[in-house]
From TrEMBL:
InterPro entries: KDZ. Pfam families: KDZ (PF18758). Residues 165-193 are annotated as: Disordered. This is CxC1-like cysteine cluster associated with KDZ transposases domain-containing protein. It comes from Botryobasidium botryosum (strain FD-172 SS1).
Length: 270
């Protein structure tokens, strides 16, 4: 293949390969192989080392640690290329704003016909926190890259709700996650809030400090499409996460939204 410029990687790309170094690459990975690993990783946890060694076995090549490093470099560049292509397409179609994805990602929720009867609720949404995606504070310190996404609510916006609630004192259950502004004795809703242990974070507060990321707080539509995500940092499911998420989604999607929350009784009081 003739070179169209002085860059070897450009010649390799025309031939369907991606070099593993920016200048004078000695190794190249096929785009088809990178595409295959990208698809596998999207469906399950696929460690790069296992994938590369499997390729070595298929080709009868002895495993070598440097091949894993070469593949990792090529795959990182491949992901950057895909993101750049997506950004250019979104820009050409005027879809760079995060609100566009939120408003149009779910065809069932977003599609509206002219003169169709108005529904009581335009969209049905649910929010909840999950503590499975944890990361220790000392893990990943060397990697300072930030993942650009219009799915995630920024930490600054979430933290702006930290002091949004007045200090009304702690409830008898020691709940630090949600504050009931006007608890009523004997009220079934208040009793439910007191009994619901997921709203109690006093006993686990010290544990959360070990994690830089203690989980995620997500909002999805009734069809399972992600509307927004917020990182939960060094804490359990505090009230600031649903408050920030509610404001963000409401400002983008408007009114007549129906929200589902497994501790809605506590959040309604908040």
């Amino acid at each position: 293949f003739p070179r169209s410029s002085g860059w070897q990687n450009e010649t390799l790309a025309h031939a369907g390969f991606l070099g593993t170094s920016p200048v004078n690459p000695q190794c190249a990975i096929s785009f088809k192989v990178l595409e295959l690993f990208y698809a596998l990783r999207a469906r399950s946890y696929s460690p790069r080392e296992a994938f590369v060694r499997s390729l070595d076995d298929i080709h009868g090549y002895p495993s070598d640690p440097y091949l894993v490093a070469q593949f990792s470099r090529a795959f990182d560049v491949y992901v950057l290329i895909l993101r750049e292509v997506d950004q250019r397409i979104a820009k050409s179609m005027d879809r760079l704003k995060g609100e566009w994805r939120m408003k149009n990602s779910c065809p069932c929720c977003a599609y509206e016909c002219e003169d169709e009867p108005e529904l009581t609720f335009r969209r049905l949404l649910t929010v909840d926190g999950n503590n499975s995606a944890k990361r220790f504070a000392n893990a990943g310190v060397s990697d300072q890259r930030e993942f650009e996404s219009d799915y995630f609510l920024s930490d600054e916006v979430v933290d702006s709700f930290s002091d949004a609630l007045p200090d009304r004192g702690k409830k008898k259950t020691g709940s630090a996650a949600y504050d009931d502004p006007d608890p009523t004795a004997g009220d079934p809703e208040s009793d439910c809030t007191d009994r619901w242990k997921n709203a109690n974070s006093e006993r686990t507060r010290a544990m959360w400090k070990a994690f830089e990321e203690s989980g995620i707080f997500a909002c999805v539509c009734r069809h399972g499409f992600i509307v927004g995500i917020a990182n939960m940092r060094r804490s359990g499911e505090l009230a600031k996460y649903p408050l920030a998420m509610t404001q963000w989604v409401t400002e983008s999607l408007g009114d007549r939204l129906c929200w589902g929350y497994d501790i809605g009784c506590a959040f309604e009081g908040t």
